[in-house]
């Protein structure tokens, strides 16, 4: 039997005061400096890392209007590894380079009113969460990776598996950022498209620093949040994709799976040499 705690010698020390847990919405806060391992480790690596959970909060279910859309602002969450450009992308999507002008009252996201397809909507863009994602609620999840970092591309695949298990109805957009850094690219466009096809989600390549294709991403996210097709009315996915990029889902899946098999070192070195010879610019923003 454990001895009872001593209570007679506490005159020189202050006893800790009890604390009341914060509401869920206050537990989620933006953090600019987040350790990558603590943010993404599954919890087995150490006691300080918290597992990622995307389960919905049972006591904070968003209300839905008669038309089937959420009754309130459309919430768009940007998820991905640190350093892929989520903060820059959120500023570009908010439409104002002045960060303080678009931060909401709780400091958790950026608020903006947009007009898409002649319909006005208020959106909230969340660009970073520290550890606790168990209460994450949003209409659209945008998984961001850098085309110059293959590790960040693999992290998005892990997140998609978690989202498909816990939030199968939440639309997902896979975004490859930093497309302007041509010579340092590590993830080919076709490989990313094949990966997105396996999960039946939309894929876009953008450059947040150059504001390239960010308006298109915003419009697609708003349409998906409304429960509509991501493409403009009267158009299809084939209309938005070039002729050279049209390919069946089966072919994309086969290419993606074959890319997972390592090639011979000599073949890989030759291919890398040929790719470098065909690239003439490191940063398209310098042109």
TrEMBL record:
One Gene Ontology molecular-function label: GTP binding
CDD domains per record: RGK
Single GO cellular component term: plasma membrane
Nucleotide-binding in keyword set: yes
Bias kind Basic and acidic residues: ranges: 29-38
PANTHER family: GTP-BINDING PROTEIN REM 2, RAD, GEM/KIR FAMILY MEMBER 2, ISOFORM C
Name this polypeptide is given: GTP-binding protein REM 2-like isoform X2
Species assigned in the record: Notothenia coriiceps
GN (gene name): LOC104947089
């Amino acid at each position: 039997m454990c001895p009872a705690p001593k209570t007679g010698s506490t005159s020189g020390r202050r006893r800790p005061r009890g604390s009341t847990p914060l509401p869920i919405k206050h537990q989620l806060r933006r953090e600019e400096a987040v350790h990558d391992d603590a943010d993404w480790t599954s919890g087995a690596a150490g006691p300080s890392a918290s597992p990622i959970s995307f389960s919905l909060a049972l006591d904070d279910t968003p209300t839905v209007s008669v038309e089937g859309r959420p009754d309130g602002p459309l919430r768009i969450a940007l998820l991905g590894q640190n350093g892929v450009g989520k903060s820059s992308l959120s500023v570009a999507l908010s439409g104002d380079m002045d960060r303080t002008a678009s931060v909401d009252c709780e400091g958790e996201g950026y608020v903006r009113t947009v007009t898409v397809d002649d319909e006005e909507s208020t959106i909230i863009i969340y660009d970073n969460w520290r550890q606790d994602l168990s209460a994450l609620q949003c209409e659209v999840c945008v998984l961001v990776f850098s085309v110059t970092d293959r590790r960040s591309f693999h992290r998005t695949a892990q997140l998609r598996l978690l989202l498909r298990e816990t939030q199968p109805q939440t639309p997902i957009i896979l975004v490859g950022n930093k497309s302007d850094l041509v010579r340092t690219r590590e993830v080919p466009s076709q490989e990313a498209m094949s990966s997105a096809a396996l999960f039946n989600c939309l894929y876009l390549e953008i450059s947040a620093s150059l504001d390239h294709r960010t308006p298109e991403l915003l419009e697609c996210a708003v349409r998906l949040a409304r429960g509509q097709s991501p493409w403009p009315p009267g158009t299809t996915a084939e209309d938005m994709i070039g002729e050279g990029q049209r390919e069946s889902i089966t072919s994309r899946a086969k290419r993606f799976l074959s890319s997972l098999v390592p090639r011979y070192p000599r073949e890989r070195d030759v291919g890398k040499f040929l790719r470098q010879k065909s690239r003439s610019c490191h940063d398209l923003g310098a042109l």
